Amino acid sequence: MNPTDVSNPEYFHKVVDCQYACPAHTPVPEYIRLIAQQRYTDAYMINWESNVFPGVLGRTCDRPCEPACRRGRIDEEPVAICRLKRVAADNKDSIADRLPQIPEQKNGKRIACVGGGPASLTVARDLMPLGYSIDIYDNQRAAGGMMRSQIPSFRLPETVLNEEVNFILDMGVTTFLETEVTSMASILEKNYDAVFVGTGAPKGKLLNLPGLDEAGSAVYIGIQWLANVAFGHTEHVGKKVIVLGGGNTAMDCCRTAKRLGGEDVRVVVRSPYADMKASPWEKEDAQHEGIPIFDNHTPKEFVVEDGKLKGMLFEKVEAVYDENGKRSLVPTGEDWVFMEADVVLMAIGQENAFPWVERDLGIDFDQWDMPKLDKVSFQSTRPNVFFGGDAAFGPENVITAVAQGHQAAVSIDLFCQGKDLHVRPDPHTNLVSTKMGVHEWNYDNAVEIDDRYVVPLVDLDKALSDRKVEVELGFDRETGFKEAERCLNCDVQTVFDETRCIECDACVDICPTDCITFTANEDDESVLRSKLTGPSHNLATDLYVSAELPTARVMVKDENICLHCGLCAERCPTTAWDMQKYFYSVSKAGQAA
Fold first, then answer.
1. What is the four-CA torsion angle of 289, 291, 292, 298, rounded to 10 degrees?
2. CA 125, CA 127: separation in Å to the nearest integer?
3. In angstroms, how far is CA 505 from the centroid of its own chain?
C-alpha cells in the first residue's frame, strides 16, 4: 500500500470518529476538554460556530456522533456527547461580546430565506456578518421551524429555543412572520440576489384505510397535531389514544398525548420493536412514562359506530428477512386485533410539498416532486435558487439542516461574487504537539473503564402534569466533569515520523491494544490487514501506513483500535511518535478558497 497521506485534512478528521460522524463536524473532543476545565462559555462557542444551536441540540439531537464514539469500544456506552453539549449551554456566561460584528455598511446583496427553521437560520447566521441583508419568511408566529412546532416543550423549553434563535435574528435579520408564501414567483419578483428554500417537510402522511372518512376529526396527522399543541390551539385529547408510527415524531405524539389527558395512550407500529426508526432513548423515555409499544401490528381499518370512532383493527404480522436482509412483513394468520380509541394520531412519515413553486420558473423537479439539486452546492436548476434542510433531500434532523445551511451559505456567497460554486473554501485545520515534558501531555490521557453517567429526570408525576415541564434535568457541573473525563481525546493524534524510527519495536511492546505492527508491505490491503498483530476487521476505518523503513518494513497502525493513550510516544526513545492535537473546522461562507 502507498504511504498514508497525512497532509490530507480529511485523514485525521476521519480518525476523530465522533466529529466525522456529525453532519456539522463539531469539534467534539475540543469542547469536551473545555467543559472538563470548566470553561463553559468557550465550549459553547466552539459548538455555536458549527452547530449553531447548542442548547437545542444538547437536548434534542439525534446524536449520530455517539454510535461512532471510540469509548463505546471500551465500555458498553459511548460518551454522553449530546448531554455534555447541554452542560456547556446551561452553564455559559453571556456571549454578547463574542458574537460576530455585523457591518453597518451592507454589501448591497439581498437574500430571501423561505422558511424560518434551522437551515434558513444557519444561512442568515453565516451571511449577516459578511454584510448581506437577509429577509426570512415563515408562516409561524415565531422563527424556529420544526424546532418550535414539532419538538415538545417538555423536551425543549421555549426559553432555550428563543435565546438561540434570537442570537441570529438580533443580527438585524428582517422577519416576515405569519406570512404564508404561496408563490415563488412573487418572491423572485422582489429582485433578491438569491433565494434559499428551507421550508422543511411539512406534509404529513395519512393511511387511507376503510373508515377514515367516517372517523373524521378523530384522526390527526401527527406533525400538524404537535404544531397545534405547541401554539396553544389544542389543549386536550381523548382518554384513549392510538399513535401510529415508530419514529421520533410518534414518540413525541404519545408523550404529549399523555400530558394532555390521555389515560390509555399506546403506540402501534408495523415493524418489530428493534426495527423502529425512533432513537433507542426516545423509545425508552416513552416506556418510562407508562406508554406501551405494540409492534408487529399492521393497521387495517377504522371502526366507527353511529358516526363516532370506536377504535382500530390490526393484523398481526411477523418479520421475515431474505438472504440480502430485505424485510417482509408476513401475516401470522391470527384473528385481527381490536384496540379502542377516541383519537388516532398518524405519525407514519413526512413528505416535502412544493405547490407554491410554479413549474415555469426554471426550477426542475424529479419524479418524486423533489427539486433537482447539485449535491455539493445545493443549487437548483435555476442558478439563484438554493435549497437546504428537509426541503432539499427529504426529512432528516436539526443537525443535518444546520450542516446544509452552512454549505448553502458558502454557495450563495460564491454565487453573489460570480465565483465557481465548486471551488469551495478549505476547512481550517492544524496539528499541534501536546508534549510538555518527558512523561507529560497537556491533555488527560488516562484510559480506564468508566460507565456512562445517567441524566437525572424530574419526578414523573410532575412531568406528566404539565407539558411545559422539562423532563431531563441535565448534568450538574460535577457530573458533567466526570462524564467529560470519559472522553478519550481522539483528536490528539498519534503522528509517526519514519525518519526518526530505529525500529526497536518498543511501541509495539507497550501498545495496550496491539494496534501497531511493523511488517513487510503488501499491495493488497486485505492481505496487509491479515498480517497485523491485532485483529483488523473494521474496513471502514483506515490503516496508517508509513513510508518504507531501512529494514524494508513499514509501520502499520490500525486506527480502529488505537486508544490515543500516548504510551507509544512516551516509550519511543527517538520521538518518532508524537501526540499532536488536530483541530478541524468546516469551511464557512467568507473564508478564502
1. -150
2. 6
3. 41
CB atoms under 10 Å from CB of 7, counted, come to 9
Instruction: Kindly report the pTM of this predicted structure.
Output: 0.94
- Hey, what's the cell of 443? 491533555
DSSP at 415: H
Rounded Cα–Cα distance for residues 171 and 78 (Å): 37
CB burial of residue 510 (10 Å; 0-12, 13-18, 19+): middle
| Nearest alpha-carbon partner for 113 in 128, 134, 86, 91 | 134
**Contact criterion met (CB below 8 Å) for 52 and 122:** yes
Are 284 and 471 a contacting pair, CB within 8 Å?
no
Return d(Cα 60, Cα 582) in angstroms, integer.
28
Closest CA to 167 of 219, 94, 240, 254: 94
Stretch 306-329: mean pLDDT, rounded?
A: 93
Q: Chain-wide mean pLDDT for the chain?
A: 95
What's the pLDDT at 592?
A: 65
**Assigned C-alpha cell, 52:** 449553531
Rounded Cα distance between 285 and 282, Å, is 5
> From residue 111, how far is each of 101, 128, 415, 481, 575 by CA, in Å?
19, 10, 12, 42, 53
Asked whether residue 593 carries a pLDDT value surpassing 60, the answer given is no
Over residues 543-552, mean pLDDT: 96
Kindly state the DSSP code that residue 128 receives in the 8-state scheme: G
The radius of gyration of the chain from alpha carbons, rounded to an integer in Å, stands at 26
C-alpha cell belonging to residue 592 = 478564502
Helix axes 118-127, 398-416, angle to 10 degrees: 40
Q: Using an 8 Å Cβ cutoff, are 122 and 163 in contact?
A: no
Cα dihedral sign, 163-165-166-171: positive
User: Are the C-beta atoms of 254 and 286 separated by less than 8 Å?
Assistant: yes
Q: Is the pLDDT of residue 114 over 90?
A: yes
